[in-house]
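2024-03-11 09:14:02 DEBUG pipeline.ingest accepted 1 chain
2024-03-11 09:14:02 DEBUG pipeline.ingest length=492
2024-03-11 09:14:03 DEBUG pipeline.predict start
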Amino acid sequence: MSGTFVGMPAFPKAAHDAVRNQTLRANLRHATHTIRDKRARAVAELDDWAGLREAGRQIKDHALRHLDRYLIQLEEAVQAAGGTVHWAADADEANRIVTRLVRETGESEVVKVKSMATQEIGLNEHLEARGIHAYETDLAELIVQLGGDRPSHILVPAIHRNRGEIRDIFVKEMARWGRPAPDGLPDTPAELAEAARLHLREKFLRAKVGISGANFMVAETGTLVVVESEGNGRMCLTLPETLISVVGIEKIVPTWRDLEVFLQTLPRSSTAERMNPYTSMWTGTTDTDGPHTFHLVLLDNGRTDTLADEVGRQALRCIRCSACLNVCPVYERTGGHAYGSVYPGPIGAILSPQLRGTTSEIDASVPYASSLCGACYEVCPVAIDIPEVLVHLRERVAEGGPATRRGTKVRLKPAKGHAAERAAMRASRWLFTHPAALATGQRLAARTRRFHPRTIPGPGKAWTATRDLPTVPAEPFRDWWQRTNGGKDADK
């Protein structure tokens, strides 16, 4: 994934630092609570929400089961409409393809629609290193780019910034990237948006190459779909002479009719709108409107390997609405940077380790970045059982693998302390299958409770460093039950 996240520490370390940032926590709390409350009201308007959710799940599962067939159908439809299709096995290949396509136009600047796929492969950094400047045009992505920052949310990449911080970034950095911020720029939303509009307008009118992702690809017609709320996407998709779209292969849906479901569930789950203000669809090229040249880069980058996992593959249903982030108590307190990926929050905790398939500390730690409360599953518009996948990945990490990457068997390296955890779990399994030993241990713990330490020594320090050690009761439950119920067995 993006080189901007290379070298990030494991989630516990990054989260420990993040929770101490009071400004960050205040920004996140305000933003996530506002978005999720609006989403709840928007969803409640639909009597058939549960049916739409189930329909979305079934459509995505069907598409994933027959992905090979639908990808070929998509390729044929795009080519028949005048487009060109390129296949990229990984990030390096995708970056090489896009760089070559831009160079063939003779241009050294491109404008971009907000795209998770291009962030995933680190396209901006790759182009910059080769003398091609990529300008983000989504307002939040613009803020992140101008600030030399990392995105921290799927829908609102600059959610960790408040208005004052954004104003300061515009004032200091806009002139270096193009049109400067107006003198005396205040921090009101309208004035900030106007400054961004003026800054971007010259780039839209000058650009000859646009780069996008896509929310959906329709196999039946070869149509690509982008939904957005600002209009910048429409400008990038229609004004340049050449359009290059980099899209993950899982974004495919079989038929045009399938869009009916997702164009209802995605806007309500993401921006709490009944319909996105801008829904752009294009099929190949035409002689009279839009770009004259269209290239579609189909990106794998770990997706087929993820598809091979019967439990983990459901992560590929994701339509990037970000609803799971807005209800997650862990994300609300740590923010997105702690996840070390362009995919933060609950969905990132199950998607990133599968796509990257590495032995890094961050990939081994993010499946544990959850309380397993299940709020993410309840709001997911395509019913991804994120807690189930988290437990599945934790098991994989604890056992040390195996996992498949690019057709090669590798073993995931257990994070520090997992060997001790695994030994503790095995000891617990033996204890719970020997009732007499368990009862003896409970009585001994109760009688020696006054001598218990407040922290666990050795590897257990990692647990008690951030948690209070529970106080052992004066009497085990079974002893209390037998004493108060005439000797009856508590298990009956």
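2024-03-11 09:14:41 DEBUG pipeline.report Residues 421-484 form one domain.
2024-03-11 09:14:41 DEBUG pipeline.predict end
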